[in-house]
Amino acid sequence: FNAKTDMRSRGASYPQWELSPSSTEPPPSGANVCVFPTEPQLQRLCEAMCPALRSRSAASEPRPRDPATAVQQVVSIGCGEGWLEGLLQQRLAPLHVPVVAVDLDVPGKDVEWYETQRCFCNEVRRLNVAELYDIEPAAVSSTALLFSFGRRLPWEAYLAAYPACPVVVIIGDRDRRRPAAELSTFEEHAAAAGS
Question: Are 23 and 87 a contacting pair, CB within 8 Å?
Fold first, then answer.
């Protein structure tokens, strides 16, 4: 039994104070938000995860996805209150690409506490610290994994559990003293996986 890969869950979702994010304004003061991209940064992120966005002009309709190669869902681990995930949901909705926001189910907090917390996306799936979000086996090869500030997240366990995910994005500061993720660990994982 390996707790890092065998304890999977879809988590719980609690009612939260729903708000809409904006790519042209910063998040409200005090929001649990680590990533708030500019409009060009958001566009580049969406294009990296969903190449179909690269080839469409602003005036055209979204192109149908090629099911063999398209990202069909984004799973964002460590979403906080879901600012980035709400922006991604707005941007990817025309392509019918759902964004699943996942964060920690804070130990000792009850439903009433969550009702006072903001949520900038459709919902936040809450997992216990020993669990990984359960991605359907048939969907793994069309899922993009997104990690914000990977040093604090179990991204290595996700890569080990879901090696067939075609897109992995780790967002963080460019500070070499505290990188977004330990690159040597990622390189070791990629070498072990043969990629």
Answer: yes
Structure tokens belonging to residue 130: 């020993």
Q: What is the pLDDT of residues 16-74, one digit of tens each?
A: 989 999 988 889 988 888 888 888 889 888 888 887 665 443 434 454 545 445 789 99
Q: How far apart are CA 154 and CA 140, in angstroms?
A: 17
Q: Return d(Cα 147, Cα 21) in angstroms, integer.
A: 19
pTM > 0.70: yes
Could you identify the residue written with the tokens 């809450």? Answer: 126
Q: CB within 8 A of 2, min separation 6: which ones? A: none
Q: What is the DSSP string of 150-194?
A: GGGS-HHHHHHH-TT-SEEEEE----TTS-SS-HHHHHHHHHHHT
Residue with tokens 């439903």: 111
Identity of the amino acid at 164? A
Give CA–CA dist 88/148, Å, rounded.
Answer: 13
Q: Answer left, alpha or beta for residue 148, where phi above 0 means left and psi between -120 and 50 means alpha.
A: beta
DSSP E strand boundaries for the chain? 8-9, 17-18, 73-77, 99-104, 118-119, 124-127, 132-133, 143-148, 167-171
Question: 141 pLDDT exceeds 80?
Answer: yes
Helix count and strand count (H, E) for the chain:
6, 9
